[in-house]
Design goal:
Blueprint (H helix, E strand, L loop, with lengths): L5 H7 L4 E7 L5 H8 L3 E8 L2 H11 L4 E5 L13 E8 H10 L7 E8 L1 H11 L1 E10 L3 E9 L20 H7 L1 H6 L2 H16 L5 H13 L1
Parallel strand pairs: 1-2, 1-4, 2-3, 4-5
Antiparallel strand pairs: 5-7, 6-7
Helix pairs in contact: 4-5, 6-9, 8-9
The structure holds S-adenosylmethionine.
Length: 221
């Protein structure tokens, strides 16, 4: 049983299904732990690079798992997985993978962007997924783990998707900082915002993006 760090443990806690696909599986530890703990019955590891693909094969040898060399969702068929995870990449890469084959994204998606989680939240609103849960794991950084569930109330041609997680919140702030975190307002979350506010205020010059982020932080704390 491989050791999972706090980040991947928090991801694993969000997963319980029959067949789970992990895109960008690399070392393969997440699927190995999910199979060993009985949280999933079958795993599909997808890697687009040779060495991480070989690492996943070695870790998952003898397990109920397929290890595939493919670019993102090109590696699975529609309906083949009940749930997927994409962890440890930037928000741009995660969204690119999801949007390349929208009909292959299962009803449940656990996404852990290292940067720009707002792009992932915006993908979900465009694609009619609700943000069911949002957790923080501490490690090298403060990681956000997002669990999305496909909305049952919005057919494919539905124009206006309503995710109740955003109810009563400033939409821009919620996309940037996380609607569940804004509702919960944990002391850890507020402390992190105050630290970021102090850091951004200390900079001699701010990019447009940082200026917007500082303005949003100051609106919510
Ligand atoms: C930083 S590692 C993260 C590994 C693991 N998911 C984790 O969170 O510890 C990202 C992995 O995703 C793989 N990757 C990046 N883009 C991919 C794509 N389009 N399809 C499949 N794998 C991809 C990379 O080769 C790399 O092994």
């Amino acid at each position: 049983m491989p050791h999972l760090d706090q980040r991947l443990k928090a991801v694993a806690c969000q997963i319980r299904c029959g067949t789970h696909a992990d895109i960008g599986s690399d070392h393969g530890h997440l699927l190995k732990a999910l199979l060993a703990s009985g949280r999933i019955e079958r795993g599909i590891a997808i890697e687009n690079k040779v060495r991480p693909h070989a690492n996943s094969q070695a870790t998952l040898a003898g397990c109920n798992a397929d290890v595939r060399l493919a670019d993102g969702l090109a590696g699975i068929a529609s309906g083949e997985a009940d749930c997927l995870s994409i962890c440890g990449m930037g928000g741009e890469s995660i969204v690119r993978i999801l949007e390349a084959y929208p009909d292959r994204v299962p009803v449940t998606a656990i996404l852990q962007p290292n940067r720009r989680p707002e792009l992932v939240r915006a993908w979900a609103l465009r694609s009619h997924y609700n943000l069911a849960d949002e957790r923080i794991a501490h490690g090298h950084w403060r990681y956000v783990i997002l669990r999305f569930e496909k909305s049952q109330n919005c057919p494919a041609n539905c124009q206006s998707h309503h995710d109740p997680a955003y109810d009563g919140l400033d939409r821009d702030a919620a996309l940037l900082l996380g609607p569940h975190q804004l509702h919960r307002r944990d002391s850890d979350f507020i402390t992190a915002l105050r630290e970021e506010q102090t850091y951004l205020r200390s900079l001699a010059r701010l990019t447009k993006e940082a200026t917007n982020r500082l303005a949003v932080i100051e609106r919510v704390i």
